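Deviation from plan, reported transparently: iron/sulfur cluster complex.
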Amino acid sequence: MTQTAPITQDVMTLPRKLPDGPINLVGLTREGLRAALIAAGTPDRQAKMRVNQIWQWLYQWGVRDFDAMTNLAKGYRAELAERFVIEIPEVVNKQVSADGTRKYLVRIAGGHEVEVVYIPETDRGTLCISSQVGCTLTCSFCHTGTQKLVRNLTAGEIIGQVMLARDDLNEWPRPGEGAGERPRLISNIVLMGMGEPLYNFDNVRDAMKIAMDGEGISLSRRRITLSTSGVVPEIARAAEEIGCLLAVSFHATTDEVRDRLVPINKRWNIATLLNALRDYPRLSNSERITFEYVMLKDVNDSDEDARRLVRLIAGIPAKINLIPFNEWPGSPYTRSDWARIERFADIIYKAGYASPIRTPRGEDIMAACGQLKSATERARKSRAQIEAETGL
Ligand code: SAH
Ligand code: SF4
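Because the crystal trials were delayed, the predicted structure below was used instead.
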């Protein structure tokens, strides 16, 4: 592959063989569900009401058995059951950390696995979900980046991660109850698990539309954060078509260092990325962008880096989230010393930006940021494969 090959090409041309079979209703948009019902014989004039009813069973009450959908006629329920299935990914292993963090190993069609992490905090509960099996990108500090990309997740597999966590936390309102009648255990979603969400744009968008729909899971778009390594051409689209909060894996203050840490920088460098970010708050009508910055000892953690960071982001409403590096077996970096991280945070804070240091959660079960990698997908990418996948 040549240097100029488009970076997205390989994701789209990867074989995406999913088992054939009845249509899964989970993951269809409202329009998609309507079309599926009509194709299965639901009269046009009834379709809107049937969509509303089925939607509410699926996403407000978490019901997956057609027979329990008691406001549909018995015969109609039987017809639905013949034509459709309601399926979410299967949890094959669950680990609970000493700090309450839960990590689910989840199996999707084809036998592949992804990880989902639930992080309870005093004022919120955050679910960290995955968008791809593995990742085509190869950030040198990220465990997922060493894993071959197997495929993009479908919208059903993405929203299915939220649904299975709600199952495990016993969070669904009982049929008949409204969305607000129970305390929310999952109050926030972050697309910070495995994969680059903007390389699976349509499925991520459709899944997040389902999460935000007021007749279902009903999470505000301000409680959903999409993290990208910097896929510049898709950033404006994310603002317009999803409208959630944005986090960006910034991690360096010179192109020379960012090229090494986040190789997509060779394609869209810091200046190009910052230009795209400047427009995001206006386009999405949201406030601040989160700049994620992993603290790597002697690599990107000097006072000079902190000062350069502040200069670079001037004019962008921002918060800087400092992430102490989470080590994984064989990782090529070490975590910056605590005093260094605090000093770095202080420089940024004094320049007028919030600079929280992210407390590593679930370290004892390898659930912390960037440690996710499913046990069955251990194959390491070869250099030739990395070049072929990324065009870098
Ligand atoms: N692919 C997306 C979402 C991924 S992960 C992205 O790159 O933004 C969420 C955050 O964890 C990213 O900022 C990522 O760079 C960071 N991360 C990855 N590996 C890490 C590690 N070992 N320690 C700390 N943070 C890490
Ligand atoms: Fe992929 Fe994000 Fe990891 Fe980079 S940090 S390899 S983009 S998952």
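The first strand starts at residue 23 and ends at 24. We consider this an acceptable substitute for the interim report.
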